[in-house]
Amino acid sequence: MTPRTNLLRLAVCCLATALLAGAAAADPAHADEPGAVQKKAAAQAAPSRAPEAPPAEEAAPDAAALAERVQALEKENIVLREDLGKTRLDARTRLGELEDREAEARARMQEKIDALRAELEAEREKQAKRNRNFWIAAGVLAIGIIAAAD
């Protein structure tokens, strides 16, 4: 996996966690008083009278609360989008810096390789010159020995 993939997965996980935490904190089922679930179950198990229609006054606050909740969620969405944008920008910046460092490291490594190759080539040329001089000296010595023996 590349660092870019890891950072993208991390950003998506953070976004999902933030959305789930926001949804859990704003969930009206968790905002009820303790024992509300038991009271509701008891009321359903023993219906004593027909349910009454809620008055019109109660519907208005629910709509206002719903509108307020929608606005809060929209604001949270905007904040999360900004955070995601900043995270993406930071990730791109870090990735660019890592790529630059990697390119510099590769350039240094290539320079070292080139220097070692040049040194190796110089050593080979030096050894070849020694070998030539040795064989020339051996040839001259052999010709000298042959000329002296006659």
What would you note in describing this structure?
This protein is mainly alpha-helical. It has helices at 3-26, 28-31, 36-45, 56-149. The protein has a domain at 1-20 and 69-122. The two termini are 81 Å apart. The relative contact order is 0.06.
Spell out the blueprint of helices and strands:
Layout: H1 3-26, H2 28-31, H3 36-45, H4 56-149
Helix pairs in contact: 1-4
Spell out the key features of this protein.
single chain, 150 residues, mainly alpha, 88% helix, rod-shaped
Give a quick precis of the structure.
Helix content is 88%, strand content 0%. By secondary structure, the protein is an all-alpha fold. Helix 1 runs antiparallel to helix 4 (56-149).
The largest pleated sheet is described as: none
Number of DSSP helical runs: 4
Tally of strands: 0
How large is the share of residues in beta strands?
A: under 5%
Order of helices and strands, N to C? HHHH
Q: What structural class do the secondary elements suggest? A: mainly alpha
- Low-confidence parts: none
Round the Cα radius of gyration to an integer and report it. Answer: 42 Å
Quick check: average pLDDT? 83
Spatial shape:
rod-shaped
> How much helix, percentage-wise, in residues?
over 70%
